[in-house]
Specification:
two-stranded antiparallel ribbon, single chain
């Protein structure tokens, strides 16, 4: 009888931690195009520094 609330509690805790971790992924800050890491974008696009954030263009 106690296992169902414990399972629900652990599930909610795990999902909230997962959301916090994935929300922490941010775009790197930059001042010029060379500040953007080359692995930031998939191959057809190139990382560019736009408004002090690295974006794929």
């Amino acid at each position: 009888m106690n296992t169902i609330p414990k399972f629900v509690y652990i599930t909610i805790l795990f999902i909230s931690l997962l959301l916090v971790v994935t929300g922490a992924v941010r775009k790197p800050e930059c001042r010029q195009n060379s500040d953007c890491p080359p692995y930031f974008c998939i191959k057809p696009t190139v990382p560019k520094c736009i408004k002090f954030k690295c974006l794929c263009k």
